[in-house]
Amino acid sequence: MHIPTASTQELTILTFADALVPRAESAQYDREKWLYIPNFYSEYRYILGTAGSHPLITIGINPSTAEPDHLDNTLKSVERIALANGFDSFVMFNVYAQRATRPDDMDKECNVALHAENMRAFRWVLERSGEAPAVWAAWGAIIEKRAYLKDCVKDMLAIGAEFGAQWLSAGKHSVKGHPHHPLYLRKDTPVEPFDVAEYLQKI
């Protein structure tokens, strides 16, 4: 379980560019297999995933405790569904980069600097994912926890459009139209086109 030690506004945040540089205190893992940025456990995480040429870029709300070789149940489900849908890898990305096992512990207000670096990370993921990168909206109803999360998704939608991103969802949507969270989905659940722009207008 990860409970933030403080709001991220009180922390010194590594820029995404600096987070790409391996640190001495890095976790021990196979760097040929895993993408992990920053490469050590911290109060925030930009990227966790496996290396490949055809990834399923999965978007949750915020990261929890998962690390390379120590995936939580949500990430295990993400990996299974990615492979079942013909992808050779997965990238777990999040609308907001702060680690918090309980979404109620997330920052009350958006840390603008952290969000900006997170969007640089998103752009980096898209750039290395080939034409029409596949982006799986997988955040569930947790997006309702903070008002700023919807605006973060709007920024992601705009960046994704620059790269021709194909937005997807998996499983049944909620009554309010939220895309299904990966947990408890069957491992062979298909991903299907998802109109994020229309969704954002309705919530």
Question: How would you portray this structure in words?
Answer:
By secondary structure, this protein is of the alpha/beta class. Helix content is 27%, strand content 16%. The protein has helices spanning 16-19, 73-84, 112-127, 148-162, 196-202; strands at 34-37, 47-50, 55-60, 89-94, 134-137, 166-170, 191-193. The chain has a 7-stranded mixed sheet, sandwiched between helices. Helix 4 (148-162) links the parallel strand 5 and strand 6 (166-170). Helix 3 (112-127) packs parallel to helix 4 (148-162). The protein is globular. The two termini are 30 Å apart. The model has no long low-confidence stretch (mean pLDDT 95).
Topology (elements, then pairings):
Blueprint: H1 16-19, E1 34-37, E2 47-50, E3 55-60, H2 73-84, E4 89-94, H3 112-127, E5 134-137, H4 148-162, E6 166-170, E7 191-193, H5 196-202
Features:
7-stranded mixed beta sheet, 203 residues, alpha/beta, 27% helix
How would you sum up this structure in a few lines?
The chain has 203 residues and is of the alpha/beta class. 27% of the residues lie in helices and 16% in strands. The chain has a 7-stranded mixed β-sheet, with helices on both faces.
